[in-house]
User: Fold this.
Amino acid sequence: MLPIYLSIDGLYSYKTKQEIDFTRLTEAGLFGIFGKVGSGKSSILEAMTFALYGDTNRLNSKNRAYNMMNLNTDHLKIVFEFIGKENKKYSFEAGWKRNGKNFEKVSTIERKAYVYENGIKIPLESNDAEAVIGISYKNFNRTVIVPQGQFKEFLELKGTDRSIMMKELFNLDRYDLYQKAADLKSVNQSAVEQIQGSLQILTDYTEETFTALTQNLEHKEASLILKEKEFTVKEEEINKLHEMKKLQSDLIERRQELELMKQQKQAITDLKQRVILFEKTEKTFKNLLEAFEKESDNFQRQKEALKDTEEKLSKKKAQAEDVTSEFEKINDEISKNEYYKILIADLENMLSYKKQLGELNIIHNRLQKAAVIIENTQKNLDSKLKELTLKKEKTEYLKRQKADTGLLFAVEAWFQKNKTLNQHLEQSLKTIADKEVKQAELQQFFIEHQLKPETAKETLIQRNLELKEQIHQTQQHINQLSVQKQLVQYADELHNGIPCPLCGSEDHPHIMKSSDVTERLQEFDLQYEKLSKNLDQLIQLQNQLEIVTGKTELLHHDLKNEKDTKEATLASLKKHQEAFIWDDFDAGDYTTFHTVKETSQKIEKEIENHEIELKSINSEVEQLQGELEKYTSAVKNIEKDASQKTGSIGQLKEAFKQLNTEDYRNLTKEDIVSEKEKITETVQTNEQRYTALIALKEQLQTDMIRLEYQKTSQEKSVVEIENAVSTYSTSIQLLLHQNNFETIEEVLAILSLNLDTETRHREIREFEDRFHLIEHTVAQLEEKTKNQQWDASYYDAVLLNYQQLKEGREILIGEIKSVKDQLEEHKKRSTEKKKLSEQLEQLDLRSKNLSVLMNLFKGSGFVNFISTQYLEELCCIANQRFERLTRGQLTLVINEDNDFEVVDHLNSDRQRSVKTLSGGQFFQASLCLALALAENTRSLNKNEKNFFFIDEGFGTQDNESVNLIFETLNNLRNENRIVGIISHVEELQERIPASVSVVKDSERGSLIKIN
Assistant:
């Protein structure tokens, strides 16, 4: 993560919005944030972490939003922009507001997250920064931004807690392979069981079975060879018999067919003669008869057409005479049309004339109504103008009575701030009293244990050493007495001739003589137990002292800060009291001011109501003025329309030619329209009839000329056709005589047969060919069978024997095929069985290997091993800086419990706990480990640059160590690493290339300035 921008508004001591452009700071590689204690330096880091994670170490979740908000602001807003995963720009925001009615209530905290895509701010679905940065809140405070009191946490973590942190930071859960190995073994076992089930099915496929099937096949194939020979002999015999049977059968069938055809031969001969007669008659008479019939039909049609034409011509002549008579009548009516047209034009003008008169009357009525409306509108307008004047005068009077709003706001603000400062003072006094009570309670611990606070730690350490020395001496006495007691026991059991249990000698010249030491040994045992118990109590007391000392120091620090806050509040309250400059009010009398304020508010409300009413009356006046202007303009337009109508009426009256307006005064529009339509209809009817008669007369003349020509043509055609019919009749009679026919009916009877001569000739030809073929076939068959004798019973016996042999042969072939199929299936299954056995062997080996892996990965042992490797790598990276900072005296290592220890190179390279380090050395170790952690987690963020913030520690270093630390931090810039530090030591500011100063102003709160 690389910070870009931070804005803080309303957080803790940040009363007004303050901004930090980290771009200039991070470009320097090393920068600092400086300010006095309590100025708000650490709040900058807290703002970042809260914007990212919505959490803070300073406060728990109870009433957090209220406690984080500055008491003099009504809102809190944090905006933090940074470069995160995959070098994308992100923005995380947090904010909430104070309840306007209840000072101690605030709205729900709102946190939002955005990512910039092509300069556009796009909301993220989740506001969890862990998804963007890849680090949890707890580990973020350990590796990126380290608040006060947590810088050394990683070094002090227990082995288990540190392993959990390493798993989260470096995603070591991917090395927790036990379940994966177990899943693989489960899958492997399923495969084993499946193969075992398949092999169970294949148990019958053995070498013995294969041998038996092979022998059976050889036996059946030998039997088939014998069967085939016997079958071949019998098949030859049956084929000969089949051939003989077929010849006999064919001879019988052909004889029968020949006999039938002999019976049909006479009918075929008769058919042949009829076909010849039909062909001759058709050739001679058919075309001539068809031509005669055609001409006869045509003659009748032409005679009928001539008759029809003569009738049509007669009708047309009669119709022409009627049209001529009617045409003479319509000429008289056409002469009256001009008069009718003038009359129609006058009627149309009469309609317009009466319409204009009606519209003129309507306009006069509108003018009368408009005059009344204008008069009423003017009265309403005068009334509203009078009401408006009175309301304005009353409003001005109320404004003169109202107090100065700015003054009231200023005095109200003074009283509110005065109240807030008094509340802060009261809270500070209460907090100081509570902390002094707690301080007295902690002092009671020293009184109860008869300890002086300033020497208590050294006193208990001295007691601890003395007790340990006493326990050591007591243990030595116990060991000596135990040996002495055992030797006495051995000596008592020694007898000459019996081997010594220690040296094996059977000769014992000087046996030890000593008194019993059991009672003394018991006394020392009781003394050792008592001393151990005292040591445990002393260690417990030391632990209690460490807790009480820590609480005392923290309480002293908090009490000092609270007293400083109280003094600052008293100073602010005094300065605020001096700022009261209003003579009309008393700084100690809020009630009088409140009464004046409420009175002013009531007047203000009344003025607002009056102004609303004034606005409403003004709106009504403007509306009435607009209506009056609209009505006046409308009257002028109506008068103009009346003048135009009068002129139009005069013009229409002068245009009449036949009609008099007085004659039509009492007639309605419908009467005039009806009269006009009747005259118009008469004119149109006459004109249409005249036009139709002219067209009809012309059409009749054309039709009569056409019919006269058609009649002449048809008369000529009838004569010509009649001559042709006579010629055909003569030709037919001559042919009848030549072909020996008495009448034409004999010819028609023959032609009515309508024979398909081609088909009949083909039938006759096929019959004759078939007849000759059958005769020849019968002669051949009689020749082939004249010396053969057919025995049907012998044939049936041979056929039965042949079928039995065939069935036996087919059964044997089927059995051989079945045995071959079994052999093929046996080979296939044997191959499958072999393959499955090999797979089962491989799966068994895999199962054993997976069991070994499961034992290896069981209980997170492998993950812990990987975690240890990461920790050792961290140590190597950290030692590159730590050894230099400690001038080669110390090196960090990891013990068997994954806890940090140091190798003391000045004391024979002995290892000891990191808790034995001095405060300065502990800071150096923490710094080096934190830098190593940040370096190792750099890949997690996928950033080109990495960022790290330190919020404590430099006050514990001597000048030379500080120089080494700053040299180390400066070297980080060459590694694309950015480090920010927070300190109240202003001398360090001169050594930092870029910095930010935080100053706390009593009025404006904490202010940020980039140096």
